[in-house]
Design goal:
Radius of gyration: 32 Å
Mean pLDDT: 83
Shape: elongated
Oligomer: single chain
Strand content: under 5%
Order of helices and strands: HHHHHHHHHHHHEEHHH
Number of helices: 15
Amino acid sequence: MRSVKSDKTGGGTREKRKRRQWLSTAKRLNCERRERHMEAVLKNLASTVELLAVAAHSGVVEQWDKQTLSRAFHWARYCEHLFSRFHNNSAVRRIMEKQLQLTNQSLQAAISGYTEVSFSDLPRCQHHLLLGLLNNPKLPSSIMRILFDSKSPADTKHNQSAVGADAEVQGVMLMERLGALMSQSSEACRTEHFLDSVLQGCERAAEHFCRVIAAALLTTENSASQTALQDFLMDWLQKKHMLMHMCSALPTTLLMDLAKEHLKFRDAYYDVLKKWASDMEYSISEGEWVQTSTNPTVSFQKLTEHFQALFDTCPSLRDDVEKELNALKISDGDFDVRGLSVWGDLLSVLNR
């Protein structure tokens, strides 16, 4: 009986020993797996910070294509996810901060003017990537057009705006890029060339680009440089005859916001309305004023709605506009018969 008991005791001891060995091995493997995972995280973090530096300072961006840009934003979102996951984990955060310190030291030694990336910068990684690209004079127009496409690689789903989430973010981007170009060169033609290239790339999404421009003009940073940039953008719009398209493509409420914010836009908008009216002829068959040459076309009813909205938004403008319209009516013969003067018929509707 004692021998049987001894065997059982010995067998139980062996089982316990095996269990302890297995647990020890499992813990060691699990620890090694966590270490490998953390090594991969730190490597990806360092690589993304280096990517941000390349985007902002390197001429390599001249070789970027749509796929490269998409991958760059993928890694920027990855770093934002890292912050979301680990910002409350003090141990992991310290490790990541140490990695950022080492990477920043390396980049500062290699790149003149490099600005370090801190752990608190990670939740805005996409924003930093955008700014870096926009301020890099080597960024090609092909990539710029992708950034201003109606579906930018940047994640803007949490942004809300009257002009649209994407358009608001891209409007800020546009102002950032204009500011960078204007600070790098006193030659206005270079900045105009940039705007021309973006416009050319957005021909299939012209309405969206109009919203981007509106968002840029409505950015609220109050500074002399911001005002100068917006004036430059307005001058370019008038030079490229873009205002007429903007006035037909954008909602009237948005046009009124622009008219309230910018005197130059308000005056140019009024000129567009007069141009629309002057291009109209009275159609006897339709019994209405119709446009003959303006593209895009606007109906007489829509024209009167634009004028009324402008009067409601800028009441002080009404008297001067009515005086000018009346002078134009008089130049047409001062008839009060419908269909003889677009200005007379316009005044008649507005004064009802």
